[in-house]
Every structure is written in structure tokens, then in C-alpha cells.
UniProtKB/TrEMBL annotation:
Organism: Streptomyces thinghirensis
Protein known as: HAD-IA family hydrolase
Keyword Hydrolase belongs to the record: yes
Pfam families linked to this entry: Hydrolase (PF00702)
InterPro entries: HAD-like_sf, HAD-SF_hydro_IA, HAD_sf
Keyword Hydrolase among record annotations: yes
Keywords: Hydrolase
Amino acid sequence: MAAVLFDFSGTLFRVESTDAWLRAALADTGMTLSAPELAETARALEASGALPGGAPPLRVPEELADAWEARDLGSEQHRAAYTGLSRQVPLPDPGLHEALYDRHMKPGAWRPYPDAAEVLSALRGEGIAVGVVSNIGWDPRPVFRAHGLDRYVNTYVLSYEHGVRKPDPRLFAAACAALGAEPGRTLMVGDSRPADGGAAALGCGVYFVDHLPVTERPSGLLPVLDLVRRPGLRGERPLRPGS
């Protein structure tokens, strides 16, 4: 393998819990909720899917369907979709909806998986290029920098910057081109079979991890090192989804 592409949310990093997200936004704005109100509001926000990178919405309101469909194609669409979902939940101040959205983009809202630094460092040491390919509506580079992982990433290919999203092969092709890597010698690592599995159409190998809390997935990325070191995968034969 000449290059490895990684998804961001649920693969290298995991966003904080909905409860922690709400608490942080309240602290940032100087607002308070009673313990029962906080617990109920957190549950409602989680059901609404208002936390980007968190649980998906149980139902997308009809008036938000277009914004939801286009959420990863532009920063304005992303904000509109997620603040629209949070507005389905009553909050003590209307400004808290924007504060919640702003909070999720802060580096403190994200934690790298325990083995992320080890895997990225090992790939760098072996001369394997690394790219981040994400369906996202904002710039995660500051998150990588704050957690010391940006030094291992050679390129970021983000849906909102390219106007296309996974599984469109064009996004993966852009990443391969930026790294100067042939798709047949590139591995895509992600947590979504529908989205990240699109790399297989380009000829990339694909490896899936589980989107779990960081405490429940201490070594999900480590098999990537075995895959890129396996002699049979260094040529043109791609690894197929699920293998």
C-alpha cells in the first residue's frame, strides 16, 4: 500500500456525548438547567440527531429534508440542518441552538481513538501517505492540530470544500491525486459501509471499523497496520468491503 485514507468522525475521532455537549454549551453561555431538565433535554437532543457526529435523527422533519440532504455540501447547509434539528427541542434561550452548533466544532468536543496516534505515526514511519476524507460541513483541521495528529496527515479532502460527498468516487479520487497514489495501492478506512465503501468503486481497498465510544474501541485501528504490511496487498489487488 502506498497510501491510507481515513474517515474523521467515528474512525479517527469520536465526538463527546450529547450530555457533555449540552453541559459545555450551557457553561459557555452562562446558562443553567436543573438536573432533571438537563437529563430530559439531552435525551431529546439525542433523539433529534442535533449533535453532528452523534446519533442520527430518529426522524427528519419535512421542512428540513432539503437541508439535511445537502448538509455535507456546504457550511451554511450544515449549520442550517443541525440547528434546525436542535430547534425541535425547547431550550431556555434561542441563542443556545447556535451555541450548541459552535461547541461541536471545538477541539475539546472531540477525542481521538486510543490507537489513532500509534497507527498514524507508524504509517508515517513506513513512508505511507495519509489522507482524511470526510463528509462534513466544517474544517476539522484545528481538531487534528489540537490533539497532535495533524503532523501525520498529508491531505484533507472534505465534502464541503469539493461539493461532492462519499460514496461519490470523485472524493476518493481527489484524495488519491493529492497523495500521488494509485487507487489500487490505497486503503480507505471508515465506519460507514454506504459512504466509505464507495472507495471500492475506484479500486481502493476498504476496511471498516465500528463507530463506538472511545472507551469501547481501544484497538480498532491497529489491524490497518497488518493490512498495509501484508505482501499480497502491496500490488494492484484491492481489499474489498467487509473483508
